[in-house]
Amino acid sequence: MKRKLLGKTPEELKAAALEAGLPAFAGKQIAQWMYVRKVRSFDEMTNISKAGRERLSELFDLGYTPASGCQISTDGTKKYLFPVKCALIHGLNACEITPDEKMEEAFVEAVMIPDEDRKTLCVSSQSGCKMGCRFCMTGRQGFHGNLSVADILSQFIAVDEAQELTNCVFMGMGEPLDNYENVKRAIEVLTADWGFGWSPKRITLSTIGVIPNLRKFLDETKCHLAVSLHNPLPQERADMMPVQQAYPVKDVLNLIRKYDFSGQRRVSFEYTMFSGFNDDKMHADALYRLLKGLECRVNLIRFHQIPDFPYTTSPSGVMEMFRDRLNRLGITTTIRASRGEDILAACGMLAGKHKTP
User: Fold this and answer.
1) How far, in Å, are 13, 15, 20, 223, 248 from residue 40 at the CA level?
2) Catalytic pick among 129, 136, 296, 347
3) CB-based contact 176:221 (threshold 8 Å)
């Protein structure tokens, strides 16, 4: 199996260039072609000799994977489908696994959301998910494997809007903090001067609260954080989100309170609203008590119906009353507009298609 170059640092690319018989400075050239120009093949690296490109192609895989499908919503949202080969062994990168170790062919989805002068890419980090949230299509399909760094970054290069993206959210398929090392390296490439050159303020990571890696993320990056909360009452949250048993939301918040979110870095809380389950005055007040004193925002999300799930979304009027009560109590709260529901691209609806070996 060829080693993938997408996701490597200039020093690592320098070593690859030397291995291919190229001069050391070719490593920086390769980095610029991949991360600035966002090329999709070695053939496009025109300031490298043809023989050098051929040698690179013999030894390495660029790591780019084209989309195998794209759906466009009536609101302009686009959902891209990508084939990947995932590591079934936890913690391994697909590019580091030898051919005789078991790999699973799968599909993941990324969503491009246009909004006036912004184009945000909702990125996947795993195929499926281990967390098992009952209301999420991704979680209900089980876990199929971690995406490599190349598979994560390829989503940014493969979309039609590659050169126009303004923001990204690690909020697609998978729990980003369950594949933290690969997500961290992807963020490094996105924010490095030699990489995409993005400000960390353009990146948001969404998690249900995997505490050990959440601490690393808060220490090692300056990106925004979004926490999937969905219910302030521990037992009710556990009924919907098994992670509550391992990482109680109070413990997650105790960790978050140790960090400064009063400046440019932001923390928000995602709250999907289910009619008659988590949308009354009692829940609003419990949410207020949970978040009191923390500089944050709450995003209320309409639940998008999935098969064999008993709840429906809260009516608009109920969501507005819930929002208004939290705002009066001093918790900045908004209702997030749903995007791409008609192509199953909205929150909790990403499922992809996967093959079993």
Assistant:
1) 16, 21, 19, 27, 43
2) 347
3) no
- Catalytic residue list contains 347: yes
Please give the structure tokens belonging to residue 192. 């490095």
User: Could you give the CA distance from residue 267 to residue 170 in angstroms, rounded to a whole number?
Assistant: 14
Catalytic annotation, pick one of 109, 122, 133, 223: 109
CA-to-CA separations, 26 to 15, 22, 35, 301, in angstroms, rounded: 10, 6, 14, 47
Q: Where in the chain is the domain with CATH 3.20.20.70?
A: 69-343
CA 69 vs CA 5, 172, 178, 184: distances in Å: 24, 16, 27, 27
Tokens read off for 223: 């990106």
| In the chain, alpha helices (H) | 10-19, 26-31, 50-59, 137-140, 149-158, 180-191, 211-220, 234-240, 243-246, 249-256, 281-291, 316-328
**240 contacts 134 by C-beta, under 8 angstroms:** yes
Percentage above 90 pLDDT, the chain: 82
Per-residue confidence at 92, pLDDT binned at 50, 70, 90?
Answer: very low
Check: CATH 3.90.1520.10 for 3-61? no
Cβ proximity of 73 and 326 under 8 Å: no
Q: What is the CATH number of domain 69-343?
A: 3.20.20.70
Q: Which residues contact 188 (CB under 8 A, 6 or more apart)?
A: 9, 195
101 pLDDT exceeds 60? no
Q: First and final CA of the chain: distance in angstroms?
A: 18
pLDDT tens-digit readout, 178-233: 999 999 999 999 999 999 999 999 999 999 999 999 999 999 999 999 999 999 99
* Whether residue 129 lies in the annotated active site: no
Q: Has residue 357 got a pLDDT over 50?
A: no
Query: What are the start and end residues of each CATH 1.10.150.530 domain in the chain?
Result: 3-61
